[in-house]
Amino acid sequence: MPRPKTYRLADGTAAPRPFLKWAGGKQALAAALQKRFPDRFDRYFEPFLGGGSVFFALASGNPVRAVLADENPWLIDTYRGVRSAWRRVAATLDTLPNTKADYYRLRAEDPAGLPLHARAARLIYLNKTCFRGLFRVNRAGRFNVPYGAYDRRLYDPNDLAATARVLRGVDLRCADFESVLDDVTPKDFVYLDPPYVKLGGHADFNRYTKGQFREPDHDRFAALCRDLDRAHVRWLVSQSDTPLVRKLFRGFRIQRIDARREINLDATRRNVGEVVVQNY
Ligand SMILES: C[S@@+](CC[C@H](N)C(=O)[O-])C[C@H]1O[C@@H](n2cnc3c(N)ncnc32)[C@H](O)[C@@H]1O
Predict the structure, then answer these.
(1) Cα separation of 209 and 214, whole Å?
(2) Taking burial as the number of CB atoms within 10 A of a residue's CB, which of 24, 37, 60, 278 is the most buried?
(3) φ, ψ for residue 174 (rounded to 5)?
(4) Structural domain count, the chain
(5) Closest C-alpha to ligand 1, atom 17
(6) Range of the domain at 198
(7) What is the model's pLDDT at position 265?
(8) Residue 164, domain CATH
(9) Beta carbon of 54 within 6 Å of any ligand 1 atom
(10) With a 6 A CB cut-off, is 193 part of the ligand 1 pocket?
């Protein structure tokens, strides 16, 4: 066990910045999205959490009662690990050299056998050192991104500390989006950022989870939004501007929003149109 470092941290109220780079991350849009959120709600639900940029922006103001979820178990373990022991996560990261050999050794390791803080450190390490910094799995559910050879800092202690602080008391779940919304009420608010509807071609990113998010999932997702609407639960959805999305959400308020997606495997598609759909 490495000796813990003494960190010089910003004051305890610093806002967390997302510490992972995530495909479809909404960091650039977080403020614009938040402006559209209702002024008041009881609990905040975010069932497609990813890199958490929208929640972190929201939580940097007032404490938020939140239910946060994602189907990716490595991701949820990472948040749990940072919340319960961010210093141990940081200390573990300090022992991991950024070399090709170490990268492939860690990539081959089965995270299931590691304690929570080491699982969190492993994902952060792979995210910061892999090619183009994105999480992607193959059909067997194995992380399969090659080494990126970037000379970058693995973490900022202020971000880990602030993340641990805002996640305190948050209900963090690893689950499919449908079950996460079982206990939502009309007093709550739901922000939903599912994988994008495919625009066609192999450039579309859809490798967050082993199962992938396919057209039947988009149908299931839109049906759930209609059910929530009938139950008077307010929601806002982020999606790509495609004919399928406009068809699935016909009758709801659909607005274009300017998005510059950071991660897109095809450079020519960087400025794909994006919409927000809302039912209030
Ligand atoms: C577009 S990303 C969310 C990005 C996030 N808003 C951010 O700013 O980083 C979509 C997320 O949905 C998750 N996901 C995919 N299928 C899911 C499912 N069936 N239920 C819940 N989450 C799922 C993926 O693991 C991924 O993290």
Answers:
(1) 11
(2) 24
(3) -105, 105
(4) 1
(5) 71
(6) 27-139+152-278
(7) 43
(8) 3.40.50.150
(9) yes
(10) yes
